[in-house]
Specification:
Layout lengths: L4 H6 L26 H15 L3 H8 L3 H28 L3 H37 L4 H4 L9 H27 L3 H20 L7 H15 L7 H12 L1 H15 L21 H24 L2 H11 L1 H9 L6 H32 L15 H6 L3 H22 L7 H32 L6 H5 L1 H6 L7
Helix pairs in contact: 4-7, 5-7, 5-11, 5-18, 7-8, 9-10, 10-12, 11-12, 12-13, 12-14, 14-15, 15-17, 17-18
Subcellular location: Membrane
Pfam families: EXS
Membrane topology: Multi-pass membrane protein
Length: about 475
């Protein structure tokens, strides 16, 4: 009637359920006095009898409705957002006009990486929601177990990030404008240290298995010493869109290490953390080198010539990055008549080559049919599925944003921080729509190879977890 002790003990494994989830059985040892499965269920019934027969009705009357709680959270979120904006704006306006732009540039530099990462987490949650509504089994594509984070958990993480990062930025603006320079300088440092500690925290909280999966994938990307899996090169492709995030992160850490936060010591362009530093192009090129090495590893394993052409695509980003950086290290005439022209030519080659590869290889337009066909038809699916304008929009916007993204790969075009932020955010949106059709194309390849997962099996994944003791992320 009941499961064996081995099965019951396996249900307590942290790999079987998300942190904070409810255990199937009591966490007390099986076989100890008063800890049987039957007693675990009888105890709350006894409490119910003590409270009286009408206690469920009283509980329902006391507990607010989910809609009320949701509206209450939204109101609190809006009040918090308005408060942060008001405090931040007042803090900026307190400063003199000549220091205001410099101050905002520095603030954006420190918080730009985490703001963009927060945006990407939100977009990834949207992707997972669309996949969960459609026939695309993303868990199979990424080789995830059934305990992986859903879009709801992803959105919870992004909500906390949306609260914490702007709050820290507001504190930085407020403290700096009120003369508390040392306290202002500590705000981005504390935030960066906290994020690093959360990522490497070894205990089973904050989604340990998912954090381990992310760190392991990043390690495999940095050192492609093993066959390349789909999650490996998928995440590496996303990192190429976040090259600006890596660059700003390097600049921020450099200034923190050299104690230049909330100072103007870094404003000298030729300083160790200045805008002319050779570290900027070196960090910008790292994601493309990683992806290039992955392609060479794939060619070693499969001998497919297409992987070499893919490697060539990533290599075209290298001259864009380094030719731009040369502006600060060559004579003005040499830049104007030689290197600038080479830089413009490399931009055209990189943009068109990348656009061609996106459309013909990553997406495969011949199967542009499934992603917006939801299992339960809705307004969204009716608006998007099978509509010709969707494909024109995706192709056209991808071409335009491929060209504008080279703006950010160019180190000598980094001074207008608002323009830089907008271009980077647009690149995130381009990558966001790229994800849909890249994952769809991979799912079509899997289904053509003979794999098929019935929808009834998907609905019963929770039942399968209880009978299995082998779970991998």
């Amino acid at each position: 009637m009941f499961e064996s002790p081995t099965t019951i003990q396996s249900s307590h494994s942290p790999h079987l359920r998300k942190p904070g989830g409810k255990a199937v059985f009591s966490d007390l040892g099986v076989g100890e006095p008063g800890n049987s499965v039957q007693e675990g269920y009888v105890f709350p019934l006894v409490l119910g009898e003590m409270k009286g027969a009408n206690s469920p009705m009283h509980a329902a009357a006391i507990m607010p409705s989910p809609i009320f709680l949701w509206r209450f959270k939204v109101i609190l979120f809006l009040i918090w957002g308005f408060t942060c904006c008001k405090i931040g704006w007042d803090s900026v306006m307190r400063m003199s006009a000549d220091l205001r732009d410099l101050f905002l540039y520095e603030a954006f530099l420190y918080y730009n990486p985490l703001l963009l990462v927060t945006m990407m987490v939100w977009l990834w949650g949207v992707c997972l929601w669309v996949f969960s509504q459609s026939s695309v089994n993303y868990a199979k594509i990424f080789d995830l177990d059934q305990n992986h984070l859903t879009h709801r958990e992803i959105w919870k993480c992004s909500i906390w990030m949306t609260i914490i990062v702007p709050t820290s930025m507001t504190a930085y603006l407020y403290l700096y404008s009120h003369g508390e320079v040392s306290l202002a300088a500590s705000q981005p440092v504390i935030l960066y240290v906290a994020v690093a500690l959360v990522l490497v925290f070894p205990f089973d909280i904050f989604f340990l298995s998912s954090r381990y999966f992310l760190l392991r994938t990043l390690w495999r990307i940095a050192l492609p010493l093993q066959p390349i899996s789909f999650p490996d090169f998928f995440l590496a492709d996303i990192l190429t869109s976040m090259a600006k995030v890596f660059s700003d992160l390097e600049r921020s850490v450099c200034r923190m290490v050299h104690r230049q936060v909330a100072t103007i010591a870094w404003f000298e362009a030729d300083s160790v953390c200045g805008s002319h530093s050779v570290g900027i192009p070196l960090v910008l090129v790292i994601p493309y080198i990683w992806r290039l090495m992955q392609c060479l590893r794939q060619y070693k394993d499969t001998k497919e010539k297409a992987t070499l052409f893919n490697a060539l695509k990533y290599s075209t980003a290298v001259p864009v990055i380094f030719l731009s950086a040369l502006k600060y290290h060559v004579l003005p005439d040499s830049w104007t008549y030689i290197y600038r022209r080479l830089w413009l030519f490399s931009i055209v080659v990189n943009s068109l080559y990348s656009f061609y590869w996106d459309v013909t290889r990553d997406w495969d337009l011949s199967v542009f049919t499934r992603i917006f066909k939801f299992n339960k038809p809705s307004y969204c699916s009716n608006l998007l599925y099978g509509r010709q304008w969707v494909y024109f929009w995706v192709i056209g916007s991808n071409l335009i944003l491929r060209c504008t993204w080279t703006y950010k790969l160019s180190a000598h075009l980094r001074h207008n921080y608002l323009t830089v932020f907008m271009v980077t955010a647009l690149e995130m949106l381009r990558r966001f729509q790229w994800i849909f059709f890249r994952v769809e194309n991979e799912w079509n390849k899997i289904t053509k190879s003979g794999f098929q997962l019935p929808m009834t099996d998907i609905a019963r994944e929770d039942e399968k977890l209880l009978g299995s003791t082998n779970h991998n992320v």
